[in-house]
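Input chain follows. Return structure tokens only.
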Amino acid sequence: MANAGTLRTPPLLLAPGRVETERLVLRLPTADDADTLAALANHREIARNLGLMPHPYTVDDARAFIGRAARIDPPGASFAVTLAAGRGGLIGVAGYGKRADNGLMDMGYWIGIPWWGRGYATEAARAVVAHAFEIGGLDVLPSGYHADNPASGHILTAKLGFEIVGREMQFSAGQGKAVDTVLVRLTRARWQASGAAA
């Protein structure tokens, strides 16, 4: 597995609605998050890299997301990604579950622009993977990234161990068109073999 040494930072605490890592707390989003969530998400640079996020992104969109997160069916979880105590508030979103557009299992994440380049996306995505396998009980976790977003591809494949399983054109609400999407997946067995589950 590529760069398996980067996988050896497991979450510190796993619970159904919460994951704590060294620098982050992933928790269920609340109504109090709506304004901050909308402000962070309302950037074309974020929406263009995601399949279902519209642009512009409004407070009403944030409230709708928070409502869906509260009703997500297991296995699945949507988290507000926040900095650990004393470091600040909401910086992004991460989670896994059945997609609203096609009903297939998927993992996704995004981090607000002010926090890019600090490794938070990798840390949050790693926490979601651990949650999906340990709490969600999944044996396989699918995800994907737009071919023109190699940074996300690097996180998924080089840092987390996802394997490329195909490509297809998928609609991106942020881009308003179908985009070339690389499909990836991670199995529980591969994740455990990497040492990430230790």
